[in-house]
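ok trying this again, last paste got cut off
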Amino acid sequence: MPADPPHFAGKAQDSTVGSRPPRASATSAVEVRRSARRRRTVSAYREGDRTVVLIPARMTEAEERRWVTVMLDKLAAQESRRVLGDSQLVARAERLSAQYLGGRARPASVRWVTNQNTRWGSCTPAEGSIRLSHRLQGMPDYVIDYVLLHELAHLLVPGHGAAFWRLLETYPRTERARGYLEGVAAVDHLPHLPAARSE
């Protein structure tokens, strides 16, 4: 994950005159903060699960709607260009293993591949290798983390039995990430994810 959230236009902290309640969007809630100090610039950044859009207090509702759309598009474009290299994937996998699996899953390699079009990731426990589909590039960080963690769990438990799913219960965004991937799979007519619990 990047150290700092992406910003556009000014990055200065504003004292907000008012803020609107979060509104649902495709990937996160949107919070609009109006500032009397802000004259012409509009900026946006990710803050956890929310997108914060900072606008001048004098903007009309129509201008606000237009700028929210523009800034969401800019953030999405920037995030789709940000691609982790294989060495960064390894570091990310090590961090996830330490945080959620007690450091027990130790992959020998983690890399992007372009030949996985019907699944998001794969793991070969005997080799300790994890491969992620290039189709994940540009998806939210929590989704990539979920797929990485899913494959890391396979280094410890093969199959999708109860013991496997217990390992993933520690990741707080499992259900949200699965929902995101199921939505993408439905749009692309891809196979469904394995059931969260074995029957």
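PB: full thing came through this time. The chain has a mean pLDDT of 78.
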